[in-house]
């Protein structure tokens, strides 16, 4: 690595074998003649990845006392290398149970000490997490995730409470239920507020028996910009929504009976509340008792009532067994939608045409791979282009991008036909964003189909699809408006 690279590098990743840290080999490498002058004065983001040791790896004759000394010396050397880190992360890969343990405690503490402002700790090991009940001050961002049960989210909630006065972003991912009460209530019963928190992300198992604590009228998260709960709703009331109706911009919720009851009982969302809300994603209808909703239309009305004025919507896994046509009338009442992600296992090109026609402001659509569906009476495939133009054009003047998952077994030629038919009724449609299938192969299918008898008369207007405009990427649910 050249001197100039060191001077201007802003991010640094250190990948290590755990035994190299124990044995001192990692420290020796940093102190070697080639690396003695290493310095990264402007690095602000540091990440550690600790690889698993192999069966052949040996710690030599080192003793536990040597391990501790080597780890401490390594930590001090890292601090010299990156003196001005603002964000630090650590992840541990899984490893065989061969009696070898990672320097988990020490590296985790190093991350916490180095970062001060931002800590990202990812445990993917099967062990009790280390105790990070440290006197951290000024921590603005905390991400703590575990991939095994019994790792506990307790350490994360303790860290969050200790830094509640300064945290702006908090992300807790755990394989056990999120302890909502421990997040905003100390062991002495006093309630904790997060006056600066802008981004709250809680994820965990879908446990219908998860504790749902009821809290007083305090506003623990008064200024949230983004709220994501990819877990069974862990609160017994509308706690996370209190006070942020004028600030909330992005919302992601796992749909379950608890959230349905809370939103309806407390009338959290109305057409005149949460006017800044831009992005809403509702996912998975599960655990609802029979009769909770009358039909798919009733459920869709509930899903769309959450932030009814949001122009960007994600409605995921809602229509596995029924047709989109059954909910088109409900969607018509939300004509403000500009970007829509909706999944149905039986989407046809006629559904797609109905969607873009029902939503006059729609520019981007994400779905599963479409199928042609039943042909109109007396109309053969080669007559379809003329038929859709005569009966449906123009369906939508603003629509321009269709994004869908297409695998080789999904009949990509049929998907191409659907794309071209939709393009004929949407004058400004210029980009088909195809996931999974090689785009060049998809474009080759399209090029061949454009010159077939039915589409050849319209090839001039369809050729733009072969080149496409600038892709309108559907916003990533976790990064939309990442810089508030």
- Amino-to-carboxy terminus distance: 35 Å
* Total number of strands: 15
For the largest beta-sheet, the strand count, sense and barrel status come to: 15 strands, parallel
Number of helices: 16
- Secondary structure category: alpha/beta
Radius of gyration: 27 Å
Q: What would the average pLDDT be, to the nearest integer?
A: 78
Strand order, sheet with most strands: 1-2-3-4-5-6-7-8-9-10-11-12-13-14-15
- What general form does the structure show? globular
Helix content: 25-40%
Instruction: Give the uncertain stretches in residue-range form.
Output: 95-100, 125-129, 474-484
β-strand amount: 15-25%
What does this structure look like?
α12 runs parallel beside α13 (412-425). The relative contact order is 0.06. The protein starts with a helix and ends in a 17-residue tail after the last helix. The longest helix is centred in the first third of the chain and has 18 residues, at 64-81. It contains 16 helices and 15 strands. α11 (349-358) links the parallel β12 (339-344) and β13. The protein has helices at 3-8, 18-23, 25-31, 64-81, 104-115, 154-162, 180-184, 257-265, 296-304, 328-332, 349-358, 384-392, 412-425, 439-450, 459-462, 464-467, and strands at 11-17, 45-51, 87-92, 118-123, 141-146, 169-173, 199-203, 226-230, 250-254, 279-283, 312-319, 339-344, 364-367, 401-406, 431-436. Strands 1-2-3-4-5-6-7-8-9-10-11-12-13-14-15 form a 15-stranded parallel sheet. With 484 residues, the protein is of the alpha/beta class. It is globular, with a radius of gyration of 27 Å. Among the domains are: 1-55 and 62-116, no CATH class; 128-231, no CATH class.
